[in-house]
Amino acid sequence: MGLKILGIETSCDETAAGVVEDGRLLNSNVISSQVELHSVYGGVVPEVASRQHVRDIVPVVEKAVADCGMALDEVDVVAVTHGPGLGGSLITGLNTAKAISYSLGVPLMGVNHLEGHIYAAWLTEHNPGEDPGFPLLCLVASGGHTDLLLMEGHGTYKLLGRTRDDAAGEAFDKAARILGLGFPGGPEIQRVAEGADGEERLPRAWMRDTLDFSFSGLKTALLHLAQAKGVYPPGSKDLEKQELARLVREMAAAFQESVVDVISAKLVDAAKRYHAKGLVLGGGVTANTRLRQEIIKRSPLPVIIPPPILCTDNGAMIAACAYYQYQRGQQYGLELDIDPGLSLG
Asked: Are residues 314 and 297 in the same domain?
């Protein structure tokens, strides 16, 4: 029998748990999303998220275990995200994990949320550590992070670049609000942008001589364009419904292409500079179809991208990451605390 790890993830607005065996075999993956709860606010409200985690955490964990056809006392290790993220959200998952670990008498593992996104790639048909092997150039792109990391081995990272202002996911959310679209912004912009003819173009912040990102200026450029076209604020110009839809479609596509262009170019450039053997993508933004297509098109190296359900926050990626920590002999006790500002690399 393999080592069965229960992973718990509550860093933001998904209450998630999953069971993974030997770091690669996905036995269950249960996610309770709060998207509808927060959509009325246009973004995640931390206090609301915390309360909902308290309501959802027990049934989510119970379902994750039941979906494997096993009992809770058959879990060998409990793993949990302890940072980065929203403090109130993180503490719910951590306290739950501590309670399960203590009651079962099994080890407790604390996992960096960003590292978890990378290890989602180990839940695909690939074993990135062996094929193509280290070093791997990793992109973690989500609502709060856009980081380029060189993974030199299990648990060994070098931070090469990160956003200097808005993360890509934040920028998508803000762009969607400008265009009158829903939350979360990434899927909405992708949906609306389909079929655009590419007439509009927005600037790229290349940040020359660095692998860092900046999306704040792009967001401002979109705002100015939307104001000039009469799309923002809503009703500022008497636009016909069809014309408004066309303008929103073109601007959404232009915004998406700008983000995709910069991320793809920097990712491939970094891989060449640091002699990576392959690329690994993780985080909610990497579920974007255009981004996936463009990186695969530009990269001369193998590109490993988990399916969209494993790109967004989930407990299975936390369990997968914890397996390799456990194999290295890392130890965590009940004194483990949350670290909302935890970094990687």
From this structure: no
How far out from the chain centre does Cα 23 lie?
19
Helix axes 168-178, 216-229, angle to 10 degrees: 10
Amino acid at 328: R
CA distance 252 to 142: 18
**CB within 8 Å of 232: residues ≥ 6 apart:** 178, 179, 180, 223, 226
Q: What is the DSSP letter of 135?
A: S
Amino acid symbol at 242: Q
| CA 244/CA 231 separation, integer angstroms | 7
186 within 8 A of 286, measured Cβ to Cβ: no
Displacement of CA 271 from its chain's centroid (Å)? 20
**Tokens at 111, concatenated:** 């996992």
Tens of pLDDT along 2-14?
999 999 999 999 9
Q: How many CA atoms, within 13 angstroms, populate the side-chain half-sphere of residue 18?
A: 33
Distance CA 179, CA 176 (A): 5
Residue for token digits 């308290």? 54
Q: How confident is the model at residue 195 (pLDDT cuts 50, 70, 90)?
A: confident
Could you give the angle at which helices 241-273 and 185-193 cross, rounded to 10 degrees?
A: 110
Backbone angles phi, psi at 101, to 5 degrees: -60, -45
Torsion, CA 78, CA 84, CA 85, CA 86, rounded to 10 = 100
Is the sign of the CA dihedral 87, 89, 92, 93 positive or negative?
negative
Q: Are 319 and 278 part of one and the same domain?
A: no
- β-pairing verdict for 156-162 and 303-304: unpaired
In the chain, the amino acid numbered 3 is L
| Segment 166-192, tens digit of pLDDT | 999 999 999 999 999 999 999 999 999
pTM: 0.97
As given in the structure block, the two tokens for residue 104 are: 């079962």
* 190 and 99 fall within a common domain: no
Tens of pLDDT, residue by residue over 96-152, are: 999 999 999 999 999 999 999 999 999 999 999 999 999 999 999 998 999 999 999
What residues make up the domain containing 20? 4-119+309-327
The answer to the question of residue 184 being in a domain is yes
